Amino acid sequence: MWSQERFGKNNELFGIVQEPSNLTQKDSLVITLPGLGQAMSEKNYLFSNLRKRLALTEQWQVQFDYFGHGDSYGELGDASITSMVNNTLEVINEVTKYNKPRCIYLVGNALGGIIALKVISQLENKVNAEIIPILISPPSHLPKIDELISDHVIQKVKKEGRLDSQYFVPGYDYYTLSDFNLEQYKYFTSLGAHMLYLHGQCISYNMLKELNELEPVELFKKCQNTCHVIVGKEDKDAQTLSELQNVLMYELQDVAFYHQHPAAMDELIDIIQNIIRNNECI
């Protein structure tokens, strides 16, 4: 059965917990981590569909909205990578306070995959459970902000603290992208953002600063766990991750990203379910 829950010191985070009928320490826990600006359901309801599929096998699961995302308190302009990591740590601590899982799967999409790696680095040797990252199209290389955004805009957001995302990736033709700078568009979509929903929301200087400091490949190298990475076969940028020793790569056929075709999302859910089913800690 599932229930709506509030997390965090001030109950500021909204989430859903799916528990098996008889929760024991033999159960594993799945926590899903959306990308930038996305609610807990993720683009095309990926994580909601995943939860429903895994619920058929009574999988213990948690979906939640970061602060400034979805139904949680705050606005996107209040969020940063640090806050997203801290939110995830809070949720893990609260959910596992009384019931200790055998292992924890962190299923992160795009920027959510980076959040997963950062969470693992903070939890190493602090929890008595194996933490297994399942990362969907995590960015492998991110250009620096000053390569994408004019100095005038950077100085403006530095002064004001936050700006509407239209300043960073302007455009109104969401279907043919005729008036978008494609490098800017690619950057923000690689983080999991959807322009129709990102526009009208603010992004803070702190968020941009932390994004600018990210070195995704270094995060992978520092992770002591095996990273299950799922990418679209047409996503050529992601292939560099396959060269890393701790990465197991899975490919979605005929797409660069899962949301480009319904069959790709079904394939993705199958892969995630099989990773969990086949893992030795189940």
From TrEMBL:
Residues 29-131 form the Serine aminopeptidase S33 domain. SUPFAM superfamilies: alpha/beta-Hydrolases (SSF53474). Pfam families: Hydrolase_4. InterPro entries: AB_hydrolase_fold, Hydrolase_4. This is Lysophospholipase.
